[in-house]
Write a structure and sequence with these properties.
With about 120 residues, the protein is mostly beta strands. The strands form 2 sheets. Strands 2, 4, 5, 6, 9, 10 and 11 form a 7-stranded mixed sheet that branches. Strand 5 and strand 6 form a beta hairpin. The model has no long low-confidence stretch (mean pLDDT about 95).
Length: about 120
């Protein structure tokens, strides 16, 4: 049974930074694609960033240059560093596990709230 547990969300002012972490257990973490989705109130869930098992990354246009996804396979953990945060980044962020790039997630974390507000 795969478990994904996110942490690091919270309240931050516009222009600030947050780092999300996702610890995985119950699987061979290093072979999978990992991702971060988000869902804002009243909006559809969207893929924010993904990283392959060999480190190739992909970002949605709205976060390019501000967010960085990374992974530490020795710690079974994926990170999302979020800089220059904007109010429109406010959402619940979910860690996801994929078998291949461009395939829907096969596992989801419980989500962590990120609120950007002054």
């Amino acid at each position: 049974q795969v478990q994904l547990v996110e942490s690091g969300g919270g309240l931050v002012q516009p222009g600030g930074s947050l780092r999300l972490s996702c610890a995985a257990s119950g699987t061979i973490f290093s072979i999978f694609v990992m991702g971060w989705y988000r869902q804002a109130p009243g909006k559809q869930r969207e893929l924010v960033a993904s990283i392959t098992n060999y480190g190739r990354t992909n970002y949605t246009d709205s976060v390019k240059g501000r967010f960085t996804i990374s992974r530490d396979n020795a710690k079974n953990t994926v990170y999302l560093q979020m800089n220059s945060l904007k109010a429109e980044d406010t959402a619940v962020y979910y860690c996801t596990l994929h078998t291949k790039v461009d395939r829907p997630p096969v596992s989801w974390g419980q989500g962590t709230q990120v609120t950007v507000s002054s």
